[in-house]
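Q&A FORM
Asked by: J.P.
Topic: structure of Transcriptional Coactivator p15

PROVIDED:
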Amino acid sequence: MPFTKGTKRAAPRDSRSDSEDEVITKSNKKTKTAKNGASTDGVDKDGNPFWDLSNKRRIGLSQFKNTTFVNIREFYEKDGDMLPGKKGISLTVPQYEALVKAMPAISEKLRAMGHDVEDVEEDGGAPTAVEAPKTATKEKSRAKKSNIEATSDEESD
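REPLIED BY: S.T.
REPLY: Here is the structure written out as tokens.
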């Protein structure tokens, strides 16, 4: 029998496991719709704030080496404690800001695909104070780039 890449054989199932899968699927759908509009917030054992997305997924804030990260991560329960799993991503503050700026376009594409997505109103007070220093940083990086281009002309001789 030739091997085909990317295909897997389905494990044999008995009728009992099929009925268990149906029950689990139905209960997952109910929990997703129940938690869809409400996210709870709290503080973990390290004192970092977090917000629940679903039963096992959270968005949290943390610091490492004086850098703040926004963590989107799956958690698992062990001995009554919620511990972070392998699956997740840590975004720096500029990466998080880029995600927030992309949210309206993402929401619009989801609506075009037929999903019902709510618009979230944002507060305009805090982000304006943060954005002013960043424009100065971008101008400095552009100046460095033009300097590199000026010195690269020597190579073309």
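FOLLOW-UP: The CA atoms of residues 59 and 72 lie 5 Å apart.
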